[in-house]
Amino acid sequence: MPDSKGSWEPSARVADLLFVDFDGVPASPDDVISDGLDGGYRERTEGLREVLRDADEEPAGRFLACVALTRWGDPTGYETVVQAARSPESVPWRGASYDRLHGEDDTFGVLADAVGDSADMVEERGTAAQRAQAAGALLSAADRIQYDRHISSLLRQDLVSVCLPAIKAAVDSGITMPAEAQPSFDLGLQLALLISAAHRHDATWAVAAARRLTAAQPGERALKELHEVLPGR
Predict the structure, then answer these.
(1) If you average pLDDT over residues 159-175, what whole number do you get?
(2) How far is CA 197 from the centre of its chain?
(3) 190 lies in which domain range?
(4) How does DSSP classify residue 146?
(5) Residue 47 domain-assigned?
């Protein structure tokens, strides 16, 4: 999991839930989340739900709780992701995680990974529909949120097939966005990745969208991602 900026110490209950493994040994949240996939998640789920719902808990602790629950295929985690994607600017934990390379907020990228990677838990938890809903919500905001390399977690074919409306809406919104409203990240590249992923499922739409994006001069990185959609360019 990416670094947090500045100093942050987890509360006692967050430390017990996510910084101590299932043998009682200090561990990183990444290791705890991974170990919990084997069934240990059951003994910590309710505690993490309480953390997530507690407005008095530190945002970074609530963010880690959301990541863990989401990775474990928990409905509360997915529901929280949906709510966050609907209003990303007001999410209290923005800035709780930063990308090591670029030093930029990475919270939604981490959540994207958690949603995508949770495919191995949804059959056991019975939450496949909730996972798809969370992925759709994140993809719907792809014209406003930077996912960087994490977007690939949302572009697995099982998700693309059920999230096409969200992908198309984000692409259409991004292409028609006024220049003064453009985000600081490489929106053209992100839209190109969405179009490329959708090509297998709706080639006619993808080709038309790729032409529209190309006409908007999205940059070389975006054009390279569209080479399979528009091979003649």
Answers:
(1) 97
(2) 16
(3) 163-233
(4) -
(5) yes
Residues 20 and 131 in one domain: yes
pTM over 0.85: yes
Whether residue 156 is found in the same domain as residue 178: no
Among candidate residues 77, 90, 10, the one with its CA nearest the CA of residue 48: 77
C-beta separation of 228 from 189 below 8 A: no
**Same domain for 181 and 136:** no
Residue 27 in 3-state DSSP? coil
The whole-number pLDDT of residue 1 equals 63
The one-letter code for the residue type at 147 is Y
The Cα 212–Cα 16 span in angstroms is 51
Radius of gyration of the chain (CA): 18
* Tens-digit pLDDT profile for residues 34-92: 999 999 999 999 999 999 999 999 999 999 999 999 999 999 999 999 999 999 989 99
Domain termination site, one of 128, 162, 196? 162
Mean pLDDT along residues 98-117: 88
How many separate domains does the chain show?
2
